[in-house]
Design brief:
- With 348 residues, the protein is of the alpha+beta class.
- The protein has two domains: 116 residues, Rieske Iron-sulfur Protein (3-layer Sandwich); 196 residues, Naphthalene 1,2-dioxygenase Alpha Subunit, Chain A, domain 1 (Alpha-Beta Complex), CATH 3.90.380.10.
- The strands form four sheets. It has an eight-stranded antiparallel β-sheet.
- A hairpin with a 5-residue loop joins β3 and β4.
Length: 348
Amino acid sequence: MTHAEDAPYRIEAATIPERYGRGWHCLGLAADYTAEPQMLNYFGTRLVAYRGEDGQVRVMDAFCPHMGGNLAKGKVCGNSIVCPFHAWSWGPDGRCDHIPYATRIPAKALIKSWPTLEENHLLFVWNDPENGAPIPEQRPPREEHCFSEDWSDWHVEKMTIHTNARELVDNMADWAHFPTVHGAACTRFRNIVEGHNYTQEFWGHSERLAEGSELFSRAIYHGPAYMLTYQSGKFGGVDMEVRLLVSHVPIDTESFDLRFGVLVRKDPGLNDEQNAAVVAGYAEANRFAFFQDVEIWHTKCRVDNPLLCDGDGPIHKLRQWYAQFYVDRAEVPASIAERKVYERTPKA
């Protein structure tokens, strides 16, 4: 007879519902969006992005409900986008504002217009399964170093990851993977949870990102998908002060686009070309670290009931925080607003 405690542990993984997190999602550098319409493949659908003559970027559902024309193949006229099939024109609010051969526009001629904003030289789009307006306190904060001459421009790369976005977010509480996967020894680790923000503070050593000296990073998720990190250490024998962008936009429930950006405080002893080389080198070092994670994600299985030990980080608490973005606003528990701190000092 087998005792319960001797039975093998069974991994559980429920089917992932097709629902995407409520919040702001970064679409990369704002300057990359022009009057030339772009097709976006996100949130399980197709979108079109374009910049109107007033300078604002609009994001809308990509297909014309008249006969299915692809608006990304159309043209921008003023602040509207014109379908290439029958020239129906769609205004910034998603309403049809002109049909060249009609005397009356159908009352139902409305497509979804997605809220957007530009901040820190980045473009954001708001997703909400309930189609609610953006929540004011969740607006991405302005980062003054993005506008300082003392700092480099963003160096942003995009890569597609073939797994559910929760695997990425889990890293915020998973200190134990740093030495194993990244070769970064952790001496102190802290998570801070408060409302829509989740903070990870890491103290340790990394040969790749700090050349063996002390490495400190403070990573903050502002909502479900936009993270900024402050990082300090050594690179190329020079003390570095860095801001990192880590932002994901779900393509579907099993894949997402990851945008990784690097912003570096310039070394006044270097010229612009040399500083740009430092940024590119640091970005490549971090990119390598990301692909160490990607290799794990692409070969692991999903686990809803992880078997944890007393030395693990607060994985369950992190997932409780993350779940707030996947339920209706009325279902978000009031306790989410409370500040909570979880700290680990890994044993030597």
